[in-house]
User: What shape does this take?
Amino acid sequence: MRRLRIGFLFRRPYGAGHVSIFPKTMQALADAGVVVDVIAANGRLIDLSAVRVEHDLYVLK
Assistant: This one.
C-alpha cells in the first residue's frame, strides 16, 4: 500500500522561538508513517498554480 503524502504550505519557515502546533502535528504524522513535506515560500506569497500536484493532501497555513 502506498504511503499517504501531505504537503504543508507555509509562507515562511518557523523560527526556533516560535510556538505552534504544526511542528508537533507534522512529527506525529511522520511517526505514523505519513510522508510529510514542508513547502515554504521564504516570506513571499505562494503561487498555488506553480505548485506541482505531488501530494495526496495539501495544508495551507
User: Anything to note?
Assistant: Residues 5-60 form one domain. The longest helix spans residues 22-31.
